[in-house]
Design a protein that fits this description.
- By secondary structure, the chain is of the alpha+beta class.
- The chain has 2 domains: about 70 residues, Phosphorylase Kinase, domain 1; about 150 residues, Transferase(Phosphotransferase), domain 1 (Orthogonal Bundle).
- Helix content is about 40%, strand content about 20%.
- It contains 8 helices and 9 strands.
- A 5-stranded antiparallel sheet has the order 1-2-3-5-4, covered by helices on one side. Strands 6-9 form a two-stranded antiparallel ribbon.
- Keywords: ATP-binding, Kinase, Nucleotide-binding, Serine/threonine-protein kinase, Transferase.
- One of its GO terms (molecular function) is ATP binding.
Length: about 230
């Protein structure tokens, strides 16, 4: 299914549920195992809240096999990054998606953020790779299009202190770039970047240099508020 920082994800058959599931096999080292267990704990807490299955990947179980931690979740569809690439390639489009597609996804993302904020959790790594189609085989042209969030490894309860670096660089909020305290608004910034990317067909802030990133933000959005710079 995919490969990430902490391991490899496979599709597998769950004989108890009689359904295909996703199984992440975590790298066999202490740090990766600890981080994966923390993420699993966050997902389990979220799963107990009403509406969780609508917005977030659903955890099933986890176990150890041959020295590896294995985390089992529901099997979802393609991520938005790949879906956007396929949409442009197959349709011969040079720019982004149609308005109705962007509107559907933006609505889902905003509702997901509302759910997370009420749960007290900041995702802190929203990007097109962590937004996935709600079921296998779903495409951007599907009339029932809906998306869910995955990868809660960086998620934090209520935010984080000044100086901590979170979020993938292209979707990083100004307060994180400036080394300030961060919380729920940084997720909304990332959603804004994702929506712009859907429209334009490319990332809005294609840089990993913080100073250049801040300059690009100011060219597009105006001057950063003085109260943020003074802090």
């Amino acid at each position: 299914v995919g490969r990430g920082t902490f391991g490899v994800c496979f599709s597998a058959w769950d004989s108890k549920r009689n359904v295909l599931v996703a199984m992440k096999v975590v790298r066999r080292d202490e740090r990766s195992t600890e981080d994966a267990l923390v993420e699993a704990s966050k997902l389990n807490i979220l799963a107990r809240r009403e509406g969780a299955s609508r917005y977030c990947v659903q955890p099933y179980t986890h176990f150890h096999a041959f020295g590896h931690l294995c985390i089992v979740t529901e099997l979802l569809g393609d991520n938005l990054h790949h879906a956007l690439q396929e949409y442009r390639t197959n349709g011969g489009r040079s720019r982004g998606v149609r308005m109705e597609i962007a509107r559907k996804i933006a609505k889902d993302l905003c509702e997901a953020l509302d759910f997370l904020s009420k749960a007290g959790l900041v995702h802190a790594d929203l990007k097109t790779e962590n937004v996935v189609m709600a079921r296998p085989g779903m495409t951007l042209d599907d009339p029932s299009l809906s998306v869910k969030l995955i990868d809660f490894g960086c998620a934090s309860w209520n935010g984080g202190p000044a100086g901590t670096v979170v979020q993938t660089s292209y979707y990083r909020a100004p307060e994180v770039l400036l080394g300030l305290e961060w919380s729920y608004p940084c997720d909304m910034w990332s959603v804004g970047c994702i929506v712009l990317e859907m429209f334009e067909g490319e990332r809005t802030f294609e840089t990993i240099d913080p100073a250049q990133h801040l300059a690009m933000i100011q060219r597009l959005c105006g001057r950063i508020p003085s109260y943020m710079l003074q802090r």
